[in-house]
Amino acid sequence: MMKAYFAAINSLKTANGFRSALFFDHYRLFLVLVTALSAFDWASNAQAAAAEKIAAQSDQTSLSISLYQSNLALIKDTRSLILDNGCTQLVWLDIASEIKPETAWLRRLQHPEHFQVLSQHFDLKRLTPQDLLESHVGRTITVIRTHPVTGEETREPATLLSTNGGVVLSFDDRIETEIPGRIAYSAIPPGLHDKPAMHILLNTAPGNPSRHDLELTYLTHGLSWQADYILELDPDERHANLTGFAALTNQSGIDFHHAKTQLIAGDINQINPARAPAAKRLGREVETLSAATFADMAAEPQFELHRYTLPEKITLRGNQTMQVSFLSARTVPVKKQFIAEGQSHYYSGHYQPSTQKQAVDIYVNFNNTGTGLGIPLPAGIARAYQADPQGDVHFVGEDRMNHTASNATVQLKLGQAFDVSVEKKQTDFKRIPSPDQTIRQFETSHEIVLSNAKKETVTVIVREPVPGDWHMLSASLPHQKVASHLAEWQIEIPAESQTILTYRIRTTL
Fold it and tell me: pTM, whole model, 2 decimals?
């Protein structure tokens, strides 16, 4: 009805202009009706707001977060509230805006049988200026103007009539259709919240205590952690110091204060792929906090995962990455290896006389045992550094480390050798006749030249992947059959010299 009446007034204005007395009479009546109806509507909202119970962060009694390595976290948020018996509209503020709504679970810790959640919904969007403006239609706002010369500010009350297609403001002596300055509001109106919120309609049985300890549990994206390791190699490359850091990233949309924190290592199955964190989608930068030392972090098994509990509560703010140290081991014995990995096509039934250069990969190995080690190590990236004779530290390579159980061996590939090289060629090829046409047999001869330009002796592990069934007919150096399809030589090469390996092998495919 109000829209139709407003349309009729507009037609009077169009037909007669603003000078029409009939137009002003009807417009004054329209303002009276708008003010009366808006006051009634505001009173109704205020009554509804009075029935709302706000659960804010100030009501929080405990908070725990369990971070996974796959953009996922489990939140357990406990708050103590005074509730009336019967139905209550509870608004739970400060939930992660990246929440998976279907996982939210609110329960009462004491006497849960007298507590029932009837329905729940989520308001995860942030409060915007447009939301605030539209919520004040029919209400008085304050327009602030700044004098362009003197800089003096003046304030003038106005009634916000409409935001449909623009702003319509009613002052004491005029109507304006554009915002002439800044707008000030006295408060956020009922039903509108400045933080992500969960709205819960719940029922409590009569005769129960008014104080309720409620725990909200949910899964959310935007929280994760990853492990990073620093390996400091000694100049002799026989020992190293190992430090492990956990980088905790919060892009969930809210801050977490004084939270008991656990880090979950391992791979879990998720039905839906994890979404990109909100902060990355919006292009926000992530602040990195300085590292805290929690090297005495406890590690415990959980299902087929491992759980690391930080010894102290932490505050993890939105769009921040915090590093905590969870591992420190000194003088760890390490072993450096040079490994040349061959290729199986040399044994697949074709003559390949051309010489091929092979890369010699550098590995550093250590056992997860001893002082400071011996706990399950979560997967992460290990970066190796080494100091030169002048004491300058240099980055010498990195590799991804898999989840490693206690007492297992960690093998890190740091790069390729510069002064150690391998050249390989096939020197003979012969097909062996077979009465069974489905079986192919070959004899091949090979030569591998290993060169060492270093001033010290090195040992190179040569690994040749041989397909099918095979038999070593002859070899200039002893080998081992370390797997069904793998022959291995450990060859010592003196300083600044070459060593030649030759062998003949029969394969059946």
Answer: 0.71
